[in-house]
Design goal:
Radius of gyration: 19 Å
Strand order of the largest sheet: 3-8-7-4-5-6
Structural class: alpha/beta
Mean pLDDT: 92
Order of helices and strands: EHEEHEHEHEHHEHEHEHEHEH
Number of domains: 2
Length: 256
C-alpha cells in the first residue's frame, strides 16, 4: 500500500551516504522522515601486518566483509595491491546490501539468509573449518564472535580494521532542531548508533519506539529501559519498511 505508514514520524539515523534510499522508501509509504546521521565513517590507514594480509590475499580461502562500509573501503584498499581480484576467491557478505556492492565489483559472493555473524557461521562452507584461512575486513570495534568461532573450528583468521565509527560533529546541533516533538520511531542499525543516540538524547533515548536490526541490539535497548521496540528481519529499506507496516496493520499492538 502506498500510504501504509502515513502519520508516522521516523528518525533515520543512517550515515549520510546510506540514508537517502531508506528515507525515500519510507516517504513513499507515507511516513514523515527526519534524518539525523549518528555514524560517520572514518577510514583507518592499512599498515604493517594488516597491509601484509592484503598483499597475501590469494592465500586465503574466504574474505569476509562485515558491512557495506567494509566492502567499499576493503575493495578500495585491495585495489592498491590487486588490480584484479584473485581468481575464484569467494567473498562472504553479512547481508544483501554488502553482497550487492561486492557483486557489482565482479566478486563471487556467498550471503546467508540470516543477516548477521551467526548466519555466516551457519553457512555449510564454514561448518568444517579445519585448515581454512579466512580474512575478515571490518570496523575497528567489530564483534569477535566470528573470528573466535572459526578459530575454535580450526581455521586461521586474520582481521584487518578499515574504519572507525564516530559521532558526526554536527549531530548535537541537528538534534536540537529536530527533537520537538519526539519522533514516533528511531531506526538503529548498529551498536555504535545506539551508543551515539543515548549520548545525544540522554533520558529521552528510550521514549520513542526503537526499531532495530539484530537480536543483540534488541537486548541492549531493552536492557536500557526501552518499552516500545521492533526487530526488523534485515537492515535494508524493504525489511525496515515491512516491519513498520506489519506493526501498523496489526493495530499498532505488535510490540516485540
Amino acid at each position: 500500500m502506498a500510504n501504509e505508514l502515513a502519520g508516522l514520524s521516523i528518525l533515520n539515523t543512517r550515515p549520510v551516504a546510506q540514508a537517502g534510499a531508506l528515507s525515500h522508501s519510507l516517504r513513499e509509504a507515507g511516513a514523515e522522515v527526519l534524518e539525523l546521521p549518528l555514524i560517520e565513517i572514518e577510514p583507518l590507514p592499512v599498515t604493517g601486518p594488516e597491509r601484509q594480509c592484503l598483499l597475501d590475499l590469494d592465500r586465503y580461502d574466504y574474505v569476509f566483509f562485515v558491512s557495506a562500509n567494509a566492502a567499499r573501503l576493503g575493495l578500495e584498499a585491495i585495489a592498491d595491491y590487486w588490480p584484479q581480484w584473485p581468481h575464484q576467491l569467494p567473498a562472504l557478505a553479512v547481508g544483501r546490501a554488502t553482497a550487492a556492492l561486492l557483486e557489482l565489483a565482479g566478486l563471487s559472493v556467498i550471503c546467508p539468509a540470516q543477516e548477521d555473524s551467526e548466519g555466516v557461521l551457519a553457512l555449510p562452507e564454514l561448518l568444517e573449518a579445519t585448515g581454512l584461512r579466512v580474512l575478515v575486513l571490518r570496523g575497528e570495534e567489530g564483534r569477535e564472535l566470528l573470528p573466535d568461532t572459526l578459530r575454535t573450528r580450526g581455521a586461521r583468521v586474520d582481521v584487518v580494521p578499515l574504519y572507525r565509527r564516530v559521532l558526526p560533529a554536527l549531530a548535537a546541533t541537528l538534534w536540537k532542531d529536530l527533537r520537538e516533538p519526539l519522533p514516533d520511531w528511531v531506526l538503529l542499525s548498529s551498536p555504535a548508533a545506539w551508543r551515539h543516540w543515548q549520548q545525544l538524547a540522554g533520558s529521552e533515548a528510550t521514549v520513542p519506539g526503537l526499531l532495530v536490526v539484530s537480536s543483540r541490539l534488541l537486548e541492549a535497548v531493552r536492557a536500557a529501559g526501552a518499552q516500545k521496540t521492533l526487530l526488523a528481519a534485515g537492515a535494508d529499506a524493504e525489511a525496515l519498511k515491512a516491519c513498520l507496516s506489519r506493526w501498523r496493520t496489526s493495530g499498532e499492538r505488535a510490540i516485540q
